[in-house]
Design a protein that fits this description.
Blueprint (H helix, E strand, L loop, with lengths): L1 E2 L2 E13 L5 E13 L1 E6 L4 E5 L11 H13 L4 E6 L10 H16 L6 H9 L14 E4 L4 E4 L8 E6 L6 H6 L10 H5 L15 H7 L1 H12 L4 E4 L6 E5 L13 E6 L2
Parallel strand pairs: 5-6
Antiparallel strand pairs: 1-4, 2-3, 3-7, 4-6, 7-8, 9-11, 9-12, 10-11
Helix pairs in contact: 1-2, 6-7
C-alpha cells in the first residue's frame, strides 16, 4: 500500500512558557501543504526498511518510520512489513517531513492490519514520536498547543491561494532555535489573528523564532523579504526554519529568483 505523506507550514508560532519537562508550551497553526514524500508499506515475512532520495541521517532504527512501526507492533502485535520511503521533502526545514512520514506509517499499518485504531488513540501514539506527529493523523488545518500535540480545529481556509516554499542551504537545529527564545504570551491568540484578512497578517501573525534565527542566518531573512517584494500576501519562516514560505493570490513561478535553493510552488487545497 502506497501513501503520500504531505508537509506543513506554521501560520504563526508563539513560544508561551518553559515547561517542567524541558519542553516549551507553544501556540501555532499547522496548515497542510500538498508537497509530499512517497511511502510504501507491505506485509512481509521479515522486516526491511529501504530509502531513496536524499538520505536521512542516522541508522535505520532511528528513522521515524521504523520507530512508528515498532511502536504499533509493540502495542498491537502485528506481523513484519517491508517499508520503502522515497524522500523529496527537504530535511531540517521546519516542514515536519519526518513527523509526517511517521504518522503516515501508522495510518498505513492501521489500514493494512485492520486495527481500527480510533483517531484519538492514533494521535496519542503519534505524539509519542514527536510534538507535531499527531497533526498528520488528520488532513485539516489545526491549532496546536501544549508541545504542539494538543490539537483543535483552526478557523482558517487558504484554498485557492498559492504557496511558494524556499529553503536556503542553511541548517537550523532545534536547540539553536530555542536558545535565543524569551517565552511570552502575546496580546492576541493565533486563532484570533487568523480570523483577520490575510492582508492584515504581516505585522500581527509572528513566528517567535525569527528574530534569533535571522540574526544568525541573515540569508533566511533575505528570502522572506524577497518574497514580500515579489508580491506575497504573507511570508514567514516555517517552524524553526530554515524554510520560508510566501502565500500569493495567484500562481507564482519564482524559481529563477531563488537560484541554488530548494524551491516548490503549488496551490493550497
Amino acid at each position: 500500500m502506497i501513501s503520500f505523506p504531505y508537509c506543513k507550514i506554521n501560520l504563526g508560532l508563539c513560544v508561551l512558557s518553559k515547561r517542567n519537562d524541558g519542553y516549551h508550551e507553544i501556540e501555532t497553526c499547522f496548515y497542510p501543504v500538498p508537497r509530499t514524500d512517497i511511502l510504501e508499506v507491505i506485509p512481509a515475512n521479515a522486516f526491511t526498511f529501504t530509502q531513496s532520495g536524499p538520505l536521512v541521517d542516522g541508522g535505520i532504527e532511528n528513522n521515524l518510520c521504523v520507530k512508528a512501526f515498532r511502536l504499533i507492533q509493540k502495542e498491537f502485535g502485528i506481523g513484519e512489513v517491508q517499508i520503502h520511503l522515497h524522500k523529496t521533502l527537504p530535511m531540517g526545514a521546519g516542514l515536519g517531513g519526518g513527523s509526517s512520514d511517521a504518522a503516515f506509517t501508522m495510518r498505513l499499518l492501521n489500514n493494512i492490519f485492520q486495527l481500527n485504531i480510533p483517531v484519538p488513540r492514533l494521535k496519542a501514539l503519534a505524539a509519542q514520536l514527536g510534538s507535531d506527529c499527531a497533526f498528520f493523523v488528520d488532513d485539516a488545518p489545526m491549532i496546536g498547543t501544549g508541545r504542539g500535540e494538543i490539537l483543535t480545529t483552526a478557523s482558517v481556509d487558504l484554498k485557492g491561494k498559492y504557496l511558494v516554499l524556499v529553503k536556503p542551504d542553511v541548517h537550523v537545529s532545534t536547540v539553536e532555535a530555542y536558545s535565543g527564545i524569551q517565552a511570552k504570551r502575546p496580546a492576541h491568540s493565533i486563532q484570533e489573528t487568523l480570523r483577520l484578512p490575510i492582508t492584515n497578517w504581516k505585522n500581527k501573525l509572528v513566528n517567535d523564532f525569527e528574530p534569533t534565527i535571522f540574526k544568525k542566518h541573515p540569508l533566511i531573512q533575505q528570502v522572506k523579504e524577497k518574497l514580500y517584494s515579489l508580491g506575497a500576501l504573507y511570508a514567514s519562516m516555517s517552524g524553526s526554519g530554515a524554510c520560508v514560505y510566501g502565500i500569493f493570490e495567484k500562481a507564482a513561478d519564482l524559481k529563477r529568483d531563488f537560484p541554488a535553493m530548494d524551491y516548490w510552488s503549488g496551490e493550497l487545497k
